[in-house]
């Protein structure tokens, strides 16, 4: 009798463990689909003839285990050519100096490419601004239920980012280096948050839509309020490490921007490149090869992918160890938008995530670099 009761107890415990495991598992492909659908809904809600988004990536959504889903929305801005551009050849005197200091972009061009440099001035337009509070509220109240697999304690968070000032951007083939006072930094402007449990209460009829809206937390933030010196230093260091002169794989042209999210940690945004187009052939800075055809270029880009993954994880740990403004239960997330490579079957984006506690343990010598790198989680998005 005791044996039977003991077996029953073991069976019950086993069922509980199995149920707990299955509940915590996330179907990543299904989650990515739900996030993409939700992103398209946000784009549609913000569809305005007077608003212009920088690219198809104006809404970026990600699932963070143990927290929920975070959408980052880049507010629309208008683009126009810079009427005055200061062209500077590396190691030489200025060749064309702008007289319009209020709308000047400084362009440092590699010798031999002066005639091909094209600069754009990006400035945020405050005219016809969209009502982002209303857009965020409508989305959370009426469409957030489309994101499945979230637990009752998970959150759905929307953050908006604006470009306050001007920055220089250039065609990938021009081979330029820009100077801008607005380079990188935190661009957080508005945050809206809803707990999944609140959305479930509304769906089940326990609360009204008006009550649901009252439970949505909306907070406006000073764009400079989320800045921290240690995060600025990490961003600047990664920009140097992946400068085209030092990289062993891909390179970045601007210091990565970042945003701090309470209860999550910090999210850095990177855009990596691999080559310059030089009159129909390609130059890859990492391997110092010129005159490559499209096929040769693409093959080299694919070969550099595992090199980039390995180095990025190591650098994220090696230089992230100095981040001290986050708590142990928060994370450092690096979202990387990949270089273009048609037909290469590389992911569109990669997300690297590491717990702050791992970085602190590595910094204090409790774990080795190899152990710390092994704890960096990587997710590919295709």
Biggest sheet strand line-up: 11-14-15-19-20-21
Query: Which runs of at least 5 residues are low in confidence (pLDDT < 50)?
Result: 6-23, 49-57, 76-85, 87-105, 108-128, 163-188
Task: State which percent range the strand residues make up.
Answer: 25-35%
Number of helices: 9
How is the quaternary structure best described?
Answer: single chain
Query: What structural category arises from helix and sheet content?
Result: alpha+beta
Overall number of domains:
2
Shape: globular
Instruction: Give the overall pLDDT as a whole number.
Output: 77
Q: Kindly provide the radius of gyration, computed on alpha-carbon positions and rounded to a whole number of angstroms.
A: 24 Å
Instruction: Kindly report how far apart the N and C termini lie.
Output: 56 Å
Query: Could you describe the largest sheet, including whether it forms a barrel?
Result: 6 strands, mixed
Elements, N to C (H/E): HHEEEEEEEHEEEEEHHEHEEEEEHEEHHE
Describe it for me?
The structure is a single chain. With 382 residues, this protein is an alpha+beta fold. It folds into 2 domains: 28-81 and 124-222, no CATH class; 228-382, no CATH class. Helices cover 32% and strands 29% of the residues. The strands form 5 sheets. The protein has a 6-stranded mixed β-sheet with strand order 11-14-15-19-20-21. α6 runs antiparallel to α7. Mean pLDDT is 77; it is low at 6-23, 49-57, 76-85, 87-105, 108-128 and 163-188.
């Amino acid at each position: 009798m005791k044996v039977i009761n003991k077996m029953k107890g073991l069976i019950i415990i086993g069922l509980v463990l199995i149920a707990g495991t299955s509940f915590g598992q996330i179907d990543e492909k299904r989650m990515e689909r739900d996030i993409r659908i939700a992103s398209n809904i946000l784009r549609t809600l913000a569809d305005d003839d007077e608003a212009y988004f920088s690219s198809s990536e104006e809404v970026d959504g990600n699932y963070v285990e143990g927290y929920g889903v975070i959408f980052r929305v880049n507010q629309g801005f208008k683009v126009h050519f810079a009427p005055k551009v200061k062209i500077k050849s590396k190691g030489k005197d200025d060749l064309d100096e702008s007289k319009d200091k209020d709308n000047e972009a400084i362009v440092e061009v590699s010798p031999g490419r002066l005639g091909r440099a094209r600069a754009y001035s990006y400035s945020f337009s405050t005219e016809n601004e969209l009502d982002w509070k209303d857009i965020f509220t409508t989305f959370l109240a009426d469409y957030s239920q489309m994101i499945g697999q979230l637990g009752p304690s998970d959150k759905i968070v929307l953050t908006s980012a604006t470009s306050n000032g001007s920055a220089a951007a250039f065609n990938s083939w021009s081979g330029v280096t820009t100077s801008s006072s607005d380079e990188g930094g935190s661009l957080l402007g508005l945050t809206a948050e809803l707990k999944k449990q609140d959305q479930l209460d509304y769906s089940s009829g326990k609360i009204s839509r008006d009550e649901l809206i009252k439970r949505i937390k909306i907070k406006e933030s000073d764009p400079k309020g989320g800045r921290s010196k240690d995060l600025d230093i990490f961003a600047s260091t990664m920009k140097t490490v992946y400068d085209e002169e030092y990289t062993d794989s891909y390179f970045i042209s601007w210091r990565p921007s970042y945003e701090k999210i309470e209860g999550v940690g910090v999210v850095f945004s990177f855009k990596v490149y691999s080559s310059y187009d030089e009159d129909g052939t390609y130059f890859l800075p990492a391997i110092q090869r010129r005159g490559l055809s499209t096929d040769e270029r693409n093959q080299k880009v694919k070969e550099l992918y595992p090199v980039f993954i390995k180095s990025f994880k190591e650098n994220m740990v090696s230089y992230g160890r100095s981040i001290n403004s986050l708590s142990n239960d928060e994370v450092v997330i690096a979202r990387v938008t990949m270089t273009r490579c048609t037909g290469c079957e590389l992911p569109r984006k990669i997300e690297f995530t590491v717990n702050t506690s791992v970085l602190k343990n590595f910094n204090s010598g409790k774990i080795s670099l190899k152990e710390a790198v092994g704890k960096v989680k990587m997710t590919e998005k295709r």
